[in-house]
Amino acid sequence: MPKTSIQFEYEKETKNSVRYKEVPEDGKAPIVGSLYVQKWYAGTSKTLEITIEKKD
Q1: Structural domain of 15
Q2: pTM for the full model?
Q3: Which among 31, 36, 38, 56 is least surrounded, fewest beta carbons within 10 Å?
């Protein structure tokens, strides 16, 4: 199955996590939307890239 890489950029901090918003490709709808990552892992990162793979 195809793998897709999704780019996220910093949106805001919450109590224990950091919220990132998806940066969709031009002309395409978001796949995930918002992503919450625990602060201990996110650190000071302003961007993230996640790779997902569909398995049927």
Answers
A1: 3-47
A2: 0.87
A3: 56
